[in-house]
Amino acid sequence: MDLSTIIDFLRENTGFFHVTWGNIVMILIGLLLVYLAIRKEYEPLILLPIGVTAVLVNLPLQTLTEPPYGLLYLVKKYLIDTEIVPLLIFLGLGAMTDFGPLIANPRSLLLGAAAQLGVFTALIIALTLGFNLHEATSIGIIGGADGPTTIYLTVKLAPHLLAANAVAAYSYMALVPLIQPPIIKALTSREERLIKMKQLRPVSKFEKILFPIVTIVLVGFLVPSAIPLIGMIMVGNLFRESGVVERLSKAASEELMNIVTIFLGLGVGSTMNADMFLRPETLKIIALGALAFAASTAGGILLAKFMNLFFREKVNPMIGAAGVSAVPMSARVVQRIAGEEDPSNYILMHAMGPNVAGVIGTAVVAGVFLSVLG
Amino acid sequence: MESGFIDLLFNGLTVSLTGVLVVFSVLALLALAISLIPRIAVLWRFHRVSREARAMVVEEGVSRERVGSVSGDELAVIASAVIGFNEFKKSVLERIELFKKFPQLSRLLPLAGLRFRGSIRVSIGGSERIVYVEEAGGEYIVRFHGRAYRVTLKIPREQAGLKTIDLLKVLES
Known about the structure:
The complex is a heterodimer. Chain A is 72% helix and 0% strand. Chain A is mostly helical. Chain A is built from 20 helices and no strands. Chain B is an alpha+beta fold. Chain B contains three helices and five strands. Chain B has helices at 2-60, 72-93, 97-101, and strands spanning 117-124, 127-136, 139-144, 147-154, 164-172. Chain A binds chain B through residues 102-103, 106-110, 112-113, 116, 119-120, 123-124, 127-128, 132-133, 136-137, 204, 206-207, 210-211, 214-215, 218-219, 222-223, 357, 360-361, 364-365, 368-369, 372-373, and chain B through 8-9, 11-13, 15-16, 18-20, 22-35, 37-38, 40-41, 44.
C-alpha cells in the first residue's frame, strides 16, 4: 500500500477533507448553544440537545440525517414534521400548569391577548424585509414566546425556517430576564410599579375542572384550527385538575414531557445544517424575534395601563409584560422588578394569570394563521 | 413588482387585523365564561343543598305545594345568604379562643340575649343583591327586595355535624 492510496483512503473516509466553512461555522454555533445551555443555563432542556445535535449534523460524512434510516431523519420526519412532538409538549404543559390565577382574575386573558402585539408587528416588518406571507407569520409567532407553538406553525407554513425560528424562539425565551426589564421600566412610572394588588381569591376544584372543558368547547367552536394546541393543553390540564388520574398527569408532566423534549431538541437540531441555517434570512429572523418579544412586552403593559383608566381596582401594569407566554420566566421577571421597588409587593400570582393567558393567546393566533393561510 | 409588494403588505395587514380581532374576541369571551364559572359553582352548591332539603321534607311529610310560594331564584338567594351568614358567624366566633375550643358554648349566646345579624352580598347569575340575615330563636329572618322570609335550619341529632337546610319550610312572612 503506497502513500497515495493511504491519502486517497483518508480523503474518502475522514471528515477533514469534506468539511466546509459552513460546517465549521455551524459547529461553532452549536457549541455556543451548548455553552449557553450549560454555563448560563439558558433554556438548557431544549438548547442543549439542539446545540449538540447541530454539531452532530454538521460533521462531514455523518449518516444520522440520511434517509431512509438515519435516526435524526426518522425523528424529524415522523415526530416533528407530523407535529406529534409539539402537540405532546402541549399535553405535558397542560399537566404542569395551574390556571388558578387566571380563573381568579379573568381580566388577565385580555393582557394575554394584548401581548400578542409583537406577533403582528414582526409579521408586518418581516413582509417589508422580503419574506412571503407564510414565512412572515411563522416568524411573527416567535413574539408569542411559545416554543412549541412556533415549531407547530413553522412546520406547517414555512418548514425551511424551522431551525432559525426555533432557535430564535428558545433563545429569546431564555433572554427574557434581559429583554423585558428595560422595556418595563421605560413604559411604567415608579408609582405604577409600586401598585399593590388585592390578594387573588381562592379557586375551587370545581372551577379548575370546569375551566379546561369550557375552554375546549368555546375555542373549539370559535377557532377550530387552534384545537390541536388548545385541546392538548386542556386535556393535560384536566388530567391534573380532575385528581382521579394522577398517574396519567404525572406521566404527561414528567416522563412523556422529558421524552418529547429530547425528541424536539434532536428534531430541531437536525435541521441546523449549514445550507439551511447560514443564510441572511437567519440574521433577519434573529433580529425580528427580538423585536417581536419587545413589542409583545410593550403590548401587555400598555393594555394594563389602558385598563387602569376604566377599572376601579388598579392593576400593576407590569403584569401585562407577563402576557408574553414564557412561563414562568416573564412572571418571575415582573415579580423581581416589583420586589426591587418594594420588597413587600408580591405580584407573582397576579403575573401568572397573563402568563398562562399568553399561552392560550398564542395558540389562538396560530389557529387564526392556519385557518387563513394553511 | 411594486403593486405585488403592496398586495402582499395588504394581505399581511388583513391577516394581522383578523388575528387581533379574533384573539381579543375569543379571549374576551373566554374571560366572560370564566367569570361565570363561580356563579355556576354557587348554583351547583345550591342545587345540592336544596336536594338535601327536599329529602328532609319528604321525611317530615311537609306538603310540597309550599314550594309554590317561593320562586327558584328566591330560594337560591335565601340559601346562599344563609350559607354566607353562617360562614360569617363561624369566622367571628373562631376569633374568640373560648369558642374555638368549645364551639358548643356558642349555642348559649341567645340565652344571653346575643344574636347575630348581618348584610350578605349575594351574587347569582350576574345580578348582585344585599341580603339582610338575622338570627331569630333557632331560625333566620332573611330580608331582600322588600320582602322577609323565615328560614329554618335544622341539625338532626342522628347526623350531628351534618347541617340540613329545610328550605321548603320557608314561610313568607
